[in-house]
Amino acid sequence: MVTATCAEPHPSDPELLDRIRAKLLVGPVLMSVAEVFKLLGDPTRVRLLDALSHGERCVCDLAALVSLSESAVSHQLRLLRTARLVRVRRTGRLAFYSLDDHHVIGLLQDTRKHVLEPPHQQRTHGE
């Protein structure tokens, strides 16, 4: 365990910090969460998720919506599918994609709200 030394003394609760530390993400879960955020760091993939938030679409429709080739869209969808952000439904030779579940929609909507809200005033410690 690393002990931090703060520049200014203030009350600290080591037991509380230990309880919080026990709840922090670790191991495979931490790596999976980081991978999702890494995937969402690409504007093309965010655009595809945004398009899919309006309902199931085939690759050719998604390509038209985001102005990319079907091949490029398929590649991005493969990455999103591996991370369980989207799912595929096949009908014959056609593949239809949709968001995997309500968590993905919530993640997209919550992030949009966060970006659009006005910045908070910076508070001083103790307010």
CATH class of the domain at 29-116: Mainly Alpha
Low-confidence stretches: none
Largest sheet: 3 strands, antiparallel
Order of helices and strands: HHHEHHEEH
Which structural class is indicated by helix and strand composition? mainly alpha
- Bulk shape: elongated
If classified by CATH, what would the architecture of the domain at 29-116 be? Orthogonal Bundle
Helicity range: 40-55%
CATH topology grouping of the domain at 29-116? Arc Repressor Mutant, subunit A
By CATH, the superfamily of the domain at 29-116 comes out as Winged helix-like DNA-binding domain superfamily/Winged helix DNA-binding domain
Number of continuous helical runs: 6
Beta-strand share of residues: 5-15%
Q: What is the total tally of β strands? A: 3
- Gap between N and C termini: 30 Å
Quick summary of this structure?
The protein is mainly alpha-helical and about 130 residues long.
Would you write up a description of this structure?
The protein has about 130 residues and is mainly alpha-helical. It has a domain at about 30-115: Winged helix-like DNA-binding domain superfamily/Winged helix DNA-binding domain (Arc Repressor Mutant, subunit A), CATH 1.10.10.10. About 55% of the residues lie in helices and about 10% in strands. It is built from six helices and three strands, in the order H-H-H-E-H-H-E-E-H. Strands 1-3-2 form a three-stranded antiparallel beta sheet. Strand 2 (about 85-90) and strand 3 (about 95-100) form a beta hairpin. Helix 4 (about 60-65) packs across helix 5 (about 70-80). The two termini are about 30 Å apart. The model has no long low-confidence stretch (mean pLDDT about 90).
